[in-house]
Amino acid sequence: MQYKNYSSILDNIKELLPYLSLTFQYVLLALLFGFIFALLLAVMKLCKYKVLRAIAQIYTTIMRCLPSVVLLFVVYFFLPKFSREVLLIDIDDVPKILFVVLTFALFLGGFLSEVMRSAYQAVSKDQMDAALSIGLTPLQAFIRIILPQAFYYAIPNLANTVIYLLKEGALAYTIGLIDVMGRAYQMNTLSYSVYPIPIFVALALIYWPLAIVIEQLFKILERLMNPIKEDKKTAGQKLKGFKAKYLGFLVQTPKGGAEK
Amino acid sequence: MLTLTNVHKAFGSNKVLKGVNLTVEKGDVVAILGPSGSGKTTLLRCINFLERADKGRLKLGEIDISLKHAHSKDVLAVRRKTAFVFQNYSLFRNKTVLQNVTEGLIIARKIPKDEAIKIAKEQLDRVGLSDKYDAYPNQLSGGQQQRVGIARAVAVKPDVILFDEPTSALDPELVGEVLCVIKALAKSGITMVIVTHEMSFARDVASKVVFMDEGVALASGTPKEIFVDCQEPRVKQFLARFNNEIDYNI
Ligand SMILES: Nc1ncnc2c1ncn2[C@@H]1O[C@H](COP(=O)(O)OP(=O)(O)OP(=O)(O)O)[C@@H](O)[C@H]1O
Ligand SMILES: [Mg+2]
Predict the structure, then answer these.
(1) In this predicted model, what pLDDT tens digit does every residue of A179-205 receive, in sequence order?
(2) Ligand 1 nearest atom to the CA of residue B197, by list position
(3) Which residue has the CA at smallest separation from atom 12 of ligand 1?
(4) Nearest to B47 by CA among B91, B94, B10, B81
(5) What CA–CA distance (Å, rounded) separates A15 from A9?
């Protein structure tokens, strides 16, 4: 094999950057499908049927207790086998990225449903009462009054979710996906591990600014919606409360969420 | 104009309303008094279907429906003919003061936006908030918020406005400004039902006083009939402290 020189961090960054597009693809797709799935689960969690609530809750707990790389392997190795032997459909040609998207969509379903549920419950009950009392239909009240406020409460957790996904997504290289992480790993192999430091520092220098930009964007969003904040004290306490309660489980909370 | 008959409501085994009857004529200002937990708030919420009663009828204009089985179409009709002023203001936090008032006009009553804004500004001026159109609720004092709450209710030109203790969440020095606004509304002939613990306000402003206790309307009549002439022991006992205070003042 040709011996490669990867000693320049700057060159490595240039080499890696194009592979970021694949990373963006699975992050966005996983967010999209995860969001839709989470919406379904959140509705189940808030509905009046005990069985549906229990199913959604059990699902969330299972996802919560599973390392994402395990789920990735299950999806990647089990699904094609299952499909071939039980459904008699050959899905071996399906691009690897779809397995990554599916894995993280399944994962985010549980994660985001919890974010949605807690955000919905953080909106005071009286907002719905007031909206109904002035003659809005329940649907109008939900869309115009409840949802914007719930969204505000969800922002810090959404920021966590996106950053979490960006980082966990790096595991996709384990099934051979050549995204930005996969490429870095490949480069390291191609150069017989002579330049791990310039290669992985370059990778870190790509991930860092990205995470910071995402974090800042959400902070700006939160500031724009600031009027919803109840009053400085109670809103802070409320958010702290539900963060501690519902978010302790998955991520080490990246710095800078709701509370200043 | 508004008639409630035999309203019952229980929360689990806790029977809160046990057959309440209430009649409100056009132009009436009805004050509902009574000890804490007697079901005053629950009664108002049942009228607006924020709570579903277990039994009872409601007549409002041509609408005559069961409080328990009313269809969502009728519920909406009742809500659009009534308005509610909440104890803790309950302004929409994601809307400005002006939007709080226009929301019910534009969305619920389909009034064109320009006209809605004009109506909203008129009502806000009337409660003395002409400089706060673009403020958000969390930037206002309690008294200001409650005045927005009142403007929001009045703007939709309801047949009757339901007030649930509109001043009891306010600091004492802010109570006056809100009572003033309500007093002015009463003079203008708007029909109102007000749950309140402000005895002297009830005595001076109400055209009719209803005393609720243990889930029934125990006594009702003119302020004089309730405050001075009523022989019902529960009412006398409840009013004793208030009446004594007056004696001291004299
Ligand atoms: N959503 C609810 N769920 C369960 N119980 C309730 C609910 N709302 C009210 N209650 C109960 O109903 C009873 C009457 O409450 P309500 O708020 O109507 O009294 P009130 O006359 O308005 O009292 P106050 O003067 O303190 O406001 C209370 O015992 C209360 O605990
Ligand atoms: Mg009450």
Answers:
(1) 889 898 988 888 888 888 888 988 999
(2) 25
(3) B16
(4) B81
(5) 10
Q: Give the closest-approach CA distance of B41 to chain A in angstroms.
A: 13
d(CA A203, CA A181): 7
Cα dist. B144→A231, B128, B138, B169 in Å?
Answer: 15, 9, 10, 12
Q: How far, rounded to the nearest angstrom, does the alpha carbon of residue B175 sit from its chain's CA centroid? A: 16
What whole-number distance in Å separates Cα of residue B244 and Cα of residue B228?
Answer: 12
Mutate to test the interface with A, among B92, B102, B123 (most CBs of A within 10 A): B92
Q: List alpha helices for B48-167, DSSP H.
A: 72-81, 97-103, 113-126, 142-155
**Average pLDDT score over residue span B151-173:** 91
Report the C-alpha gap between A178 and A20 in whole angstroms: 10
The per-residue pLDDT for A236 is 45
Task: Check if A227 contacts B (Cβ < 8 Å).
Answer: yes
Which domains, and CATH codes, for chain A? Answer: 9-247 (1.10.3720.10)
Dihedrals phi, psi of A6, to nearest 5 degrees: -120, 45
Nearest-Å Rg of the Cα atoms of chain A is 21
Render pLDDT for A12-66 as a digit per residue (tens, 0 to 9): 888 888 999 999 999 999 999 999 999 999 999 999 999 999 999 999 999 989 9
pTM of the model: 0.84
The minimal CB distance from B138 to the residues A127, A133, A231 is found for A231
Question: Is the Cβ–Cβ distance between A92 and A99 less than 8 Å?
Answer: no
Q: How far apart are CA B230 and CA B221, in angstroms?
A: 9
- The pLDDT-based confidence of A237 (bands split at 50, 70, 90) is very low
Q: What are phi and psi for residue B208, nearest 5 degrees?
A: -150, 140
Helices marked H in B89-190? 97-103, 113-126, 142-155, 172-187
- pLDDT score for A3: 67
The residue among A109, A83, A116 whose CA lies nearest residue A30 is A109
Task: Please state whether beta strands B2-11 and B14-24 pair in parallel, antiparallel, or not at all (unpaired).
Answer: antiparallel
Q: DSSP 3-state helix, strand, coil percentages of chain A (rounded to 5)? A: 80, 0, 20
Q: Would you give the distance in Å from CA A83 to the centre of its chain? A: 27
Q: Note whether A63 and A106 are within 8 A (CB).
A: yes
DSSP string, A34-66: HHHHHHHHHHHHHSS-HHHHHHHHHHHHHHHTS
Cβ burial, residue A200 (10 Å; 0-12/13-18/19+)? middle
User: Residues 6 or more apart from A252 whose CB is under 8 A from it?
Assistant: none
